[in-house]
Write a structure and sequence with these properties.
This protein has helices at about 1-85, 90-110, 115-135, and strands at about 135-140, 150-160, 170-175, 175-180, 180-185, 185-190. It has about 190 residues and is of the alpha+beta class. It has three domains: about 45-85; about 85-135; about 140-193, Nucleotide Exchange Factor Grpe, Chain A, domain 2 (Roll), CATH 2.30.22.10.
Length: about 190
C-alpha cells in the first residue's frame, strides 16, 4: 500500500508539471503563429533575392562564355591568317628575282646565246616559279582587261591602238601578284586613252 500511495503522490505532483508544460507549449505555439507571417515574408524575400542572384550569376556566366567563344574564334582566325601569309615578306623578296629571270630569258632569246644558256636559265626560272606558286603566290592577269585600282597601278596613259581598248590595260610594265587572294604587289600598267 505504501507503494500505491507513493504512485498517487507522484502522479499528483506530475499534473501541475504537465499543465505548466502544456501552457508553455501553448504560449510558444502562439508566439510561433504570430511570427509565422513575418518569417514567411522574410523567407519569401530571401527566396526572391536568391533567385535574383542566381539569375544574375547565370547571365554573367552566359556573357563570359560568349565572350570566350568570340575570343577563341578570333584567335583561330588570326592564326589561320598568320599561317596563310607567313612567308609574305620572303615571297615579296623573291619577286625581283623572278622579274630578273624573265628579263634574262627575253635577252637570251634576242641574242645568239647557246641553247644550254637558254635551257639553264629557263630551268632555274621554272623551278623558282613553281616554288612560289606552291606557296600560294599567283600572277595577276590584267592585260586587255578594264583598269582596276584594286589590282593595278597606272604608270602611263597612251592612245589606245584600237577603240575597244580605251580605259583598258594595253601593256604590263611590271607583273602583279597575289598571295592566297591578297594583293602583295600591284601590277604596273599602261592604260589606253
Amino acid at each position: 500500500m505504501k507503494n500505491n500511495n507513493k504512485k498517487k503522490h507522484d502522479v499528483q505532483a506530475e499534473e501541475p508539471l504537465n499543465e505548466q508544460v502544456a501552457q508553455e507549449a501553448a504560449e510558444t505555439t502562439e508566439e510561433a503563429a504570430e511570427q509565422a507571417p513575418e518569417q514567411e515574408s522574410e523567407g519569401a524575400d530571401a527566396v526572391k533575392q536568391a533567385e535574383e542572384r542566381a539569375a544574375a550569376a547565370e547571365d554573367k556566366y552566359l556573357r563570359l562564355a560568349a565572350e570566350f567563344d568570340n575570343f577563341r574564334r578570333r584567335t583561330a582566325k588570326e592564326k589561320l591568317d598568320l599561317v596563310k601569309s607567313a612567308g609574305e615578306d620572303i615571297l615579296k623578296g623573291i619577286l625581283p628575282v623572278l622579274d630578273d629571270c624573265e628579263r634574262a630569258i627575253e635577252q637570251l632569246e634576242k641574242t645568239e646565246a647557246s641553247t644550254f644558256e637558254k635551257e639553264g636559265t629557263g630551268l632555274i626560272y621554272n623551278k623558282l616559279r613553281s616554288y612560289v606558286k606552291s606557296c600560294g603566290l599567283e600572277e595577276m592577269e590584267v592585260k586587255g582587261k578594264e583598269f582596276d585600282t584594286d589590282t593595278a597601278e597606272a604608270v602611263a596613259q597612251l592612245p589606245a591602238p584600237e577603240p575597244e581598248l580605251k580605259g583598258k590595260v594595253i601593256e604590263v610594265v611590271q607583273k602583279g601578284y597575289t598571295l592566297n587572294g591578297k594583293v602583295v604587289r600591284f601590277a604596273k600598267v599602261v592604260i589606253g586613252l
